[in-house]
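Recall the central idea of this unit: under ordinary conditions, the amino acid sequence of a chain determines the structure it adopts. In this exercise we apply that idea directly, starting from the sequence alone.
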Amino acid sequence: MNRVLTLLAATGVVLILSLAELLLANRKFGLFTGGFGQSRAVDGGGEVALFVLGYVCAQVFIGLLAWAIIARLNRSGSNRHLLFHFLFAFGGLFAGVMALRYQLASYFSDAMSFGLMKQLGGGSLGDAILYGINEITLGVGALLGVVLVYWLIWRWVRRHPGPTAKDGARYGALRPGWKAGGVATLALIGALAFIPRSGGDAAFGLNRTQVWSAGGTALDAATDFDRDGYGMIAIIRDDHPFDSARHPLALDIPGNGVDEDGFGGDLELVAIPEQPALTQITGEQPNLVIVVLESTRSDVLGKVVNGQEVAPNLNALAAEGSVTPSVFSHVGFTTESLKSLFSGSLVPAKGSPSLFRELDQSGYRIGVFSGQPEDFGNISATVGMRDAADVYVDAESLKEKRAFSFAAQGSLLVAENHLLAAFDENFGEPSDWQDPLFAYFNFQSPHFPYAHDEMPNRIEDHPIERGAISAKNADHVQRSYWNAVAAADFWLGELIDRLKASGEWDNTVLVVTGDHGEELFDDGFLGHGHRIGKAQNETFLVMNRPAAAPAGPLGLSDLRPIILAAMTGGQPVQPEFPPFLQIGPLDEPTAIGLAEPDGRIVSIRLDTHEVCFLPNNRCLPYDQLKGSDLARADAVVARWGSERWARRAKQ
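Accordingly, the structure predicted from this sequence is:
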C-alpha cells in the first residue's frame, strides 16, 4: 500500500470518527442546535470557527499520536499492517469510549450530562451502573466480540503480509516524524490556552468532546502549580497560580485585607436569613396539604393557550385565596428546591428543622404522594420525609406504574391519577381524618419531555414527540409544555374536590407552588438550572387562605414560616432579604445572583466573570463595572460569601 493511499485511509478513519462524535454530541447535548440542558450552544459564526479550529487541532494530535504509537509497536510492519492496527486499535478504542460515554450519560436523565446531574443532586455513576447493568453487560459482550473479530482478521492478515518496512524504499512505509508531532502538540496547547479566554461558547462546546476535554484536564492539572485545584487552562482559571489561598471560588476570609476569590475586594459579612426553629403546632391544628407542580413557571397564572385557560383550578384558587406571583427557586433544581421549601434554609443540614419533623412531633398523620422518587438527591433524608410519613407513596414504590421505561431515579415519573388513587385508598373515609393531616403531593407531568401515555390532551391535540424536541419546533414544544401543566392542573382540581367532599376544606390550608421554572427556548435554551433568570428560577405561591401569601419576591426557603403562620393564624411573614440564587453547589457555583425587590435580577457567572442585569439583559465584564452596577454586583458577592461562612460555622 503506497504512502498516499495509507495517509488517505488513516485520515478517513479519523474523519469518520470525528463526524460520528459531532453528530452524537449534537444529538445528545444540542451542541450546535441547543436543547434541554444546553445553555451554551455553539451557534455564532465566530464561535463555530473557533470550535472547528480547536477540534481539528485535537483530532490531528490524537491521530498522529495513535499512529506513532502503533508504528513504534510494529516497526517491521507494512503500511497495510499499520493501517489495520490503526483502524482496530485507535478506531475501536475511540468509538468504544465514545459509545460508553454517551450510553452511560443516557441513564442519568434528559439533562444530558454527568455534571448537570451532580448539580441536580441525585445523579451518580453508581445509579447509572445499577440501572444500566443489562445494557452494560451487553456492551462488554460486544467489546469481547470486537476483540475476537480483530484477532481472527489479524491472523488472516499475518498469513498475507505483503511488503514490509524493510521494503520501505520501494513501497514507502509511512512513519510520522517528530516535527509533525511537535507542530500538532504545540497547536493543541495553543488552542487549549487561547480558546477558553476568547469569550463565547466555543470552549464550552469543545469540552463536550473527548480529546479536547481530556487534553484540557491534563494541561490544567499540569499548570496547577500551587496545587489548589485550579490551573491556568480551564474556563475557570487561576489568575494566581503560585498562591494556593487565592483561586476561583476560594472562600474569602473577611477582614484579612486579601480578596481570595477575585470579586468584591476583601469580604465584609452581611446579615443573612436564619432557619426557623422547630415549631410545635398546638391548639387548633388545621390540615395542611402542599402540592408542588414540577417545572411550573410563574406565568402559568392567567396563561391562555389555543384560546383555553391553562390552569383554571389554580387561577380560581388564587382568586378565592391569595397569591404571590414571584417565588424563586434558589438553585433551579428539584432536589435542592424541595429541601429549601420544607426546611426554610438555603442549604439545610440533615436532621435540621423541617415541616415534616415539626408536624410529626405535633401529632399529625402524614402522607407523601409523589410522582418522583423522594429519596432522589437525599430529599427525604434531609427533611425527614420517610421517617415522619405514615403513608409513603412515590415513584420508587409505584415503579410498575411509571410512565417511562427509563430506570435511573432522575427519570422515574408516575402520573397523577395513581397518586390520587393512593390518596383515596388511605384518606377516602371520614374515619381517616380523625387526626390532623399533612399531605404532600408532587405532580410530575410538566417535567421534560412534557408528555406521556396517560396524559390527556387538554391544550395541545398532538404533543410533540420526544425526538422532535428542538429549537426549530419551539412553538410546538411550548404548547406541549402548557398541555402538561394543564394536565397537572386538572388533577389539582380533582384533589380540591376530594378535600371539599371530605368536609375538611374549611379546616385545611392548601399550598400550591412549583419547584422551579422552565425555559422553553425563550432565549435559545430548553430546561432549567443552567442560567439565572425568571424563566428558569421563578415560580409562584397560591394559598386557599386570603391574605396568607405576602408580596414577593420570595425564595422557596421563605415558604416554611409563611405556611406555619397560615396554620397558626398569624400574619404572613414578609421576608427581609432578597432571594439568593445560585447555579450549582453553594461552595462551587458557576453563577450567583439576587432577585431584587423591584423585579430586577443581577447575576454573576463565576466562570466567565460576566455580570448580567435583568430584565433588559445588559451584560458586562465584572472588571468594567462602575457606580450602582458595581454596588449591585458586590452585594451579590457579599451575600454569597456570608452564606458560605454561615454554612461553615454550622459544620
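Confidence is low (pLDDT under 50) at residues 104-136, 164-172.
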